[in-house]
Amino acid sequence: MPAFSAYLQAKYALDARSFNRAVWRQLCRSIRHKTTLDILDVGSGCGAMLRRISLASQASVLSLTGLDVDSRLLKIAAADLSSQLQKQGFRQDQGKTLFTCGNPQRQILLATAAANAADFIPPKQYDLITAHAVMDLLPLTEICRRFHAWLKPGGLFYSSINYDGLTSLFPAYEAAEFEQQLLT
From CA 44, how far away is CA 110, in angstroms rounded? Predict the structure, then answer.
């Protein structure tokens, strides 16, 4: 597990360079002026997309839900997001997953759900669903049907970086055996 979480955290900068910049800018423009925003991030891992969205949104109330099969990764995601928000001047309210900052007050709420996307029953509908580097691991037709049902009318779906099985990264990862397991 430590090798996989280290891998996910190390690829944060690489992923940012891999986004289609025009599509990312359009997504940011689409959410920038919303006063409240409910977001579900599918396959959250260590929370890279949660951190990116928290930077892109200026919503007065931003509700982030991270969904991943691995609860250990979600704990890392929550800790990393908390650290990022505290550096931005947010404070965590009474050890909860509510962060507040500024005047007028801005709130960011974080929830996590350790479940397979096929088994997840959302407690609400979302304005935006993100699925970063995970769509190639899910049954596409079924998951798209579910996502459609989970979105509010007019909601957005953002999916990025689907692994093609041919990508090579250099220099080789120091844990070559782990990397090979990951790729197969």
Answer: 12
